[in-house]
Design brief:
Layout lengths: L9 E5 L4 H10 L5 E6 L10 E5 L5 H8 L4 E4 L9 H22 L3 E7 L23 H20 L2 E7 L1 E2 L8 H4 E2 L1 H13 L4 E6 L51 H5 L5
Parallel strand pairs: 1-2, 1-4, 2-3, 4-5, 5-6, 6-9, 7-8
Helix pairs in contact: 1-6, 2-3, 3-4
Bound molecules: D-galactaro-1,5-lactone.
The site of D-galactaro-1,5-lactone has 9 residues, from loops.
Length: 270
Amino acid sequence: MAQAGRGLGTVAITGAAGRIGSFLRTELRPDAEGLLLLDRVPPPPAGDGEACHTVDLLDAPALTAALAGADAIVHMGGISDEARFPDLVNANIVGTHNVLEAARKLGIGRVVLASSNRAGGFYPTSHTTDPTEPPRPDGLYGVTKAAIEALGRLYADKFGLTVVCLRIGSYEDAPTESRHLATWLSPRDAAGFVRAALTADVDYTVAYAVSANTRRFWALPDPDVLPYTPLDDAETHASEIPAPDAAFDPKAPQAGTFASPEFTLRFLDE
Ligand code: 15L
């Protein structure tokens, strides 16, 4: 375990074998006293100060056992895009409920939930969406993300947990398509938002986790609430992107093609 700076205490990461989870593992390790790494598939072997648990979010007793000892949970696990509704409901809504229940029972005071911009993907690109506006999901996946924000609010209001919901944008090493010029979340900004969510003096908040993109259509969080100001701007990559203006018809949904009927019809019965 790294000896310097352990201010975050013991942090549990669900979805620790996933793309964002693996990155956060590396980023948070120096700041945490220890890491509990949970995933349905075995995370890469534990290093110093780490404990790995192969656990399904739907196995509540095993999940609770694996989370014991955490001071905070960064919940990244679940299905990360459109899928069949029963699968989404189980992995995302029931899974998040199990995480929040484990936190309540174990006295873990802080949970960071991976929400998504897709909870509001039907707002048009001409609109700057603030996360306090009503959800406007672009698909079934977005519906489950709106639901987990509500679950987080319930556990904050009723049981006094601190819950920070991050509406993650397009997490990529670099933007690769027109829409990303608005929606990109760079890895270093992702780490910045998560660190802020682990330290913010707040009961409950929902915030867009998006880089400081010139063309963004989401409001950045108030730094007095979530103390992080993003550093990267997708615009610096605009010249590498084919048809950089293509996604910016003012009436088009912010989710782009994710909002099309076809994107969801694949997961619905005839
Ligand atoms: C998300 O929430 C998804 O997890 C990811 O696959 C992308 O679709 C991203 O949103 C996006 O909006 O680009």
